[in-house]
Amino acid sequence: MNGFEKRAHAIKEKIMKSTMDLLRTSDPKRIRISDISKKANVSQVTIYNYFGSKEALVREVFVNFVDRAIQEFEAYMNAGHSLKEKIAHIILLEKESYKDFPPALMKELLINDDELARYIELQYKEKTIPLTIRIIQEGKDSGEISEDISIETVLSFIQLYMNQYDKLLEMAQQSGDIEKFLEGMVHMFFYGICGKP
Questions:
Q1: 161: which residues sit within 8 A by CB, 6+ positions away?
Q2: Mean pLDDT across the chain
Q3: Are 183 and 151 in contact (CB under 8 A)?
Q4: Of all residues in the chain, what percent carry a pLDDT higher than 90?
Q5: Helix (H, G, I), strand (E, B) or coil at 101
Q6: Percent with pLDDT over 70 in the chain
Q7: Which residues lie closer than 8 Å to 9 by C-beta, 6 or more apart?
Q8: Long-range contacts of 137-146 (CB under 8 A, 24+ apart)
Q9: CA 176/CA 10 separation, integer angstroms
Q10: pLDDT score at 144
């Protein structure tokens, strides 16, 4: 990258970070280009030059977030962790995601942007699911997951947890000890309510 490209990249990153910061605290519909411009300390024209519209900017911020999350997910899954650690990571992954994109915000962005929804669906089908299936198969091959339980059943069980994660997180917050509550949920995933490690 030459000097001009580095400066352009730095400005673009600053705009995206400022947008992410605003999305954490504001309804996307209420955020204006002028708000982003002020927070990023750049002109509104600069934002339009780089992104074209507020919608395109928000989409790029979310896509960037998803791409980074998938890269981190792949790195964790390939880093030699135990099967239990990997599945616990999958189940608890959304806890970290919700710090940046709460469930209501994610739903709103996906409902209002078909292109973004298609992109997320594609990443889920082409990257996340195949990697999760590989991890489950490795667990079956090593005897850590019962041969009597199909890959589809394990995937469905993980999906049940993830589909209800906003409610689980709410209950965890009400419990007063989020970490202990979520550890209990992971324990139940592996051993049921009567089983022991």
A1: 91, 168, 185, 189
A2: 85
A3: no
A4: 29
A5: coil
A6: 92
A7: 1
A8: 138/83, 139/83, 139/87, 142/83, 144/83, 144/84, 145/83
A9: 41
A10: 84
* 155 close to 132: Cβ distance less than 8 angstroms: yes
Helix, strand, coil: what percent of the chain each, to 5?
Answer: 80, 0, 20
Q: Is residue 23 a contact partner of residue 105, using CB atoms and an 8 Å limit?
A: yes
Asked whether the beta carbons of 139 and 85 are under 8 A apart, the reply is no
> What single-letter amino acid sits at 119?
Y
Residue 115 and residue 60: Cα distance in Å, rounded? 11
The average pLDDT across 176-188 equals 83
| Residues 54-79 pLDDT 10s | 999 999 998 998 898 889 888 988 89
Q: Note the pTM of the prediction, 2 decimals.
A: 0.75
Give the count of alpha carbons within 13 A of 63, CB side only.
14
